[in-house]
Structure formats: structure tokens, C-alpha cells
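Morning!

As promised:
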Amino acid sequence: MTDLSLNADIVREVLVGFIEDEVTKAGFYRVVVGLSGGVDSSLSAYLAAEALGPNNVWGILMPYKTSSPESVEHARLVVDRLKINAMQIDITPQIDAYFDCFPEADHVRRGNKMARERMTILFDQSAALHALVLGTSNKTELMLGYGTLYGDMASAINPIGDLFKTQVRHLARHVGVPEVIVQKKPSADLWVGQTDEEELGFTYEQVDQALYLMIDKRYEIANLVACGFDERFVRGVFAKVQASQYKRRLPLIAKVSHRTIDRDFRYPRDWGI
Amino acid sequence: MGRSFKIALAQIQPALGDLERNLSLHEKLCEEAIAEGADLLVFPELSLTGYFLKDLVPSVALTPESPALTPLKELSRRIAMTIGFIEEAPGHFFHNAALFLEGGEVRHLHRKVYLPTYGIFDEQRYLAEGDRVRAFETSFGRMAILLCEDMWHPSAAYIAAVDGAEFFLVPSASPGRGTPQKGIFANAKAWELINRAYAQLFTVYIIYANRIGYEDGACFWGGSEVIGPSGECLAKAEYLHDSLLLAVIDSSEIRRARTMNPMLRDEKLDLTLRELQKIQERRS
């Protein structure tokens, strides 16, 4: 087993510093964060409360009628523990109104629509509150493409996007996220009974080991197999990473000029701030 | 033999691409260091511009004669300093460079020789490389500037040492990499190892000034330090926080270290040159 532990004190300080620095130098002092009741968004909220003060953090709960009651309950627990601001917006009316026109839509379409509905609410509330949207996607799901493009993957800044799920859990425990949240089965909660690991076909512990070696340590598939990983599993993971590359990039732009965005027009994101 | 002086390291967060703000920050730090009785102030790499400039490089470039630098040159009558900037050289080549200012004048210009272009770095895309490593005289003794990645090439440190530098000024903009497991980022630990090893191998003072803050999510880890010529850490700034690190340097320590460990005396320059020449001939 590769050691994926982290020095939680230092990583916490780096991530809290990141939120404070990147928010304030952009001219903001507040963030909004969608709270699902899961460990990722809970950790983001904990880090933001520490960076900006609980008064400057808005936790937005956006359940759909089929969302697990536990999700709202756990999100409320985070709000109460951190004493951050909270807002609950039921997305059922707008989702149902849309799918009344497309009753044949499968649960993936419905799930993606919900994720994007939540995104539009977060960005709208960020405008109302003069806040930035804080991201909650971890490195595992970003690498696997296990997220909705322009949905839960959308944010202004993301403090946990370079931490594997295993490391998110470690850090969440360290900052005091309630154990009931850290321990529960991860779920996008997009349909009843959904769990990440069942849908993905492996556990986060398993895939984090492979991803860490593949991404951070540049192991080729043959190297991973030589280390004892099952070849089918590793090829499956690699295929997910490859197939989801588009989700981690801006849309392709047809190049015709001398300077095209992100190809040869290259300025830092922190340009002028 | 030797003298004692006080050195200050400005562990700051420059604003990315904002010369005006950074010049004010430099002036402020100069005043603070003067108030602390410091004789020499070392700023991090690209302290006047910030690091991940990308296409901003030509917009923030200066020459050593630029009027924008006049206030710092004036301040160098009261405190010597090393500053980092983008230099526009004749021919419109842009260099990642550092100046040593003392007595109102530019005493030395170092253009970064080794431009990292891998992983998070992309310097060769935007910058021209320097073509020399030279030691230079200051009122504190003979020094050399090695800019960040220059230190990761032992040949550059070797040249500086055999050219007589007793102090390596190392302005740095090191972004943390390698998720911290024990202690700080993996690359920061490597830096600390290199600084101590070089100090001891070359019996020199290593004055390592790293910056802090974030650019596009990358975190500069700070941890500036002064390492003595026997490898001992004389002063160490906090990780991740701004700081004006102070250390009193007793340069007679170099004499003692070189008496006990006279490796530089025994260095075989002829052999090194001869063998390198042979290797070069074989390669070409």
C-alpha cells in the first residue's frame, strides 16, 4: 500500500491560506458553497470558515424531492457546527417543470440537470452576495471525470481539487468534520440509493492508490501491473481519466488568429490582482 | 580577518505583474530593515514582478538603468540589496535577473542561467538564459548570486565557489510541490538539504530568500534561511508567512570553516577542466 497520508497541519494551513489569498486579492471576502452533507463540501466549508470567518461563508442547501433526508440533516449539522450562514432552496419545481416536457429522460440526464441547476443557483447567489463560488470536487473525481461538467465541477476556486478522496477524509477528520459525515458512503445523491463506489465499480481507497502512482508518480500501466494491480482495473481507471480529459479543459476553440485563448494568449489567472 | 554584518531576508508576497505596488513594498521593507540595523537586504526571485508572469513578461521588463529603479538605488546608499526583476537586454531579450545594489550603484547583474521548463515551470518559453556565473566584490566580501534553479545545478555553485564567492545569495520563488506527509512540501525539504550540503561542501554562507503567497493556486512556501559555512542553520523564517528574517554574519567563520575543511584549497581545477573538455569532445 502506498502511503497517502498527509501532514494535516501544514496542508490545512496551505488550503486556508489559499482561500484567504485568492478570494481577497480578487476583491471579495465572501464565498458561497453548495452543501450536500458529504465530506467534500463539508471540508470546503470548514476551510472557508477558518479562512474568512463563519460570517463570510454561505452554505447553500439545494435538495431535490428524492434527495436523502440525511443529506440535508448532515449539511445542517455542518452549518450549526461552523455557525456559517445558510440558505435552503428546493430545486424540485424547476427540475420537474423541465422534465415534464421530457418524461423519457433517464436518471443520468436528470442527475446532470440537477447538478447544473445547483450551479446556476450558486452563481446567482454569489452575485447577490458579492461572493465567490467555492469548489468542492476532489482530485479523485476530477481525474475520473466523475462529476457534471458545468455542474458540480464549476467554481471560482477549489481548495480540495488536488487532494485524493482518501486525503480529503484524513483532512476532514483533522479539521473536525463530524465523524458521521466522514464515515458515510459517498454519494452524489442524484437518485435514490446511488453510491459512488457502486457506480464506479471500485472503492476510493483502491482507486486512489492507482491514481496516485499513475498521476503523481507517472507510473505507466505496465509499471502498475508489475506492482500487483489488476490489469483490467488499471486499464479501466486509465480509460476514465483519458475519456474525461475534456472535462478538465476549456472548450476547444478553432484557431485562426495569432493569439488564441489558452494556446498563445497566456496570462495568469491572477492577472492584475 | 573578516567582519561582522547584519543581513535581512525579505520573505514577501510580490503582487503579480504590479511593478508600482512591488516597488512600494520594496521601499517599505528597506526602511524596516534599516530600522533593524541591517546592512544588506535580500529579496526573493522576481521580487519586483511576481513569478508566473507568462505573457506579462514584456510588460513588466526594465533595464538596470530604468528610472523606476532610482528610488531603490538611492536606498542602497543606506542598505545594500539584491532585487529580482525582468531585465530587457539589448536585442529585446528578456531575462529573469537580479541586481546587487550598493552605494547608489549597480554592483552586479546576474541573469538566471538555468530556466526550469518542466512540470509547473515554463521559463524557457518566455525568457532568455544567462550565459555566465560570476562572483563579485562587495563591501561585505566576495559574493555570487544564484537564482533559484541555478542552485539545482552543482556546476553553477561550483563555479561561484572557485571564483571566490564566500556568500551565495539565492533569491528564490519556489512553489510547493509534493503533498506534505511529514513536515513541509517534498521540494522544500530538498531545498533545505541542498542549502546545507552546498554550504558545507563549498564552505560558504548560503543566503536563501524564498517568497510566500499564492499565484494561480500555487503556494510559495517561504522558509527562507541563512546557512553558515559549516552547514549550520543560523536563522530560519517561518513557512508560509511573511517575515523579515535577520541574521548576524561573522565572516571570520569562513576562515575557521576553511581551515578545518580545506576542500576548496584542494580543488583540482586543472583536472576538472581537462576532464570536462574530454567529455565535451567525445560528445560532439
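The mean pLDDT of chain B is 97.

Hope this helps with the figure draft.
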